[in-house]
Amino acid sequence: MMAVIMAAYQNTSSSFFGAKFQKSIEELFVSPMAYWKILLGFCAGAMLRAMMVAGLVFGAAAFMTDITIKHIGLAFIFIFLSALLFALLELYNALYAKSFDDIALIPTFLITPLIYLGGVFYPISILPNFWQIVSQFNPILYMIGGLRYAFIGSSEINIYLSFGILISFITVLILVILYLLKK
């Protein structure tokens, strides 16, 4: 999941901010293309890269150990939704970024702490109560919970809640980014 998150995030940042930095993004905005198509294009590229990285990581892991997936459809859905969420998050960041240093703000100061509080390396039930409550507001917790359920058939997080949280974050980001692209 961490490879998917970083691949989706980095693809959008390099594509959109690169076009912005080279001043070629203006050509895209003055074209008669709809804003949702611009959003779809950048997100599709990031998601394709993330899905390819997920396949390569899974292939390498399967080569080294015996991996079984209890719910393969759910695994694809959670990888897809996670890739979309982080592609959107980076597109949001790239819209505001003024320099290459601004692109590094989100992975350094947002994604890294969220990963450590997201139950990636341990169950959140071993955290103190305060940090368990803080972790409930972390979208990575729901991504990890959903993928963990898809692989091993159990998770601390309700699978339906995971879907709802991810879809909610994605919907809000799509609406905000479409507004910003029009602006």
Question: What would you say this structure looks like, in words?
Answer:
This protein has helices at 2-21, 25-30, 35-64, 72-96, 100-103, 105-116, 129-135, 139-152, 159-182. The chain is globular and about 50 Å long. It is 78% helix and 0% strand. Helix 1 (2-21) runs antiparallel to helix 3 (35-64) and helix 4 packs parallel to helix 9. The chain has 183 residues and is mostly helical. The model has no long low-confidence stretch (mean pLDDT 87). It starts with a helix and ends with a helix.
List keywords for this structure.
mainly alpha, 78% helix
Strand content: under 5%
Q: Indicate how many domains the architecture comprises.
A: 1
Distance between the termini: 33 Å
Helical content band = over 70%
Number of strand segments: 0
Principal-axes shape call = globular
The secondary structure category is mainly alpha
Q: In this structure, how is the largest beta sheet organized? A: none
Alpha carbon gyration radius:
17 Å
Rounded mean pLDDT is 87
Identify low-pLDDT runs.
none
Question: Please, how many helices?
Answer: 9
Give the H and E element order. HHHHHHHHH
What does the secondary structure layout of this molecule look like, with pairings?
Layout: H1 2-21, H2 25-30, H3 35-64, H4 72-96, H5 100-103, H6 105-116, H7 129-135, H8 139-152, H9 159-182
Helix pairs in contact: 1-3, 1-4, 3-4, 4-8, 4-9, 8-9
In short, what is this structure?
By secondary structure, the chain is mainly alpha-helical. The chain has helices at residues 2-21, 25-30, 35-64, 72-96, 100-103, 105-116, 129-135, 139-152, 159-182. The longest helix has 30 residues, at 35-64.
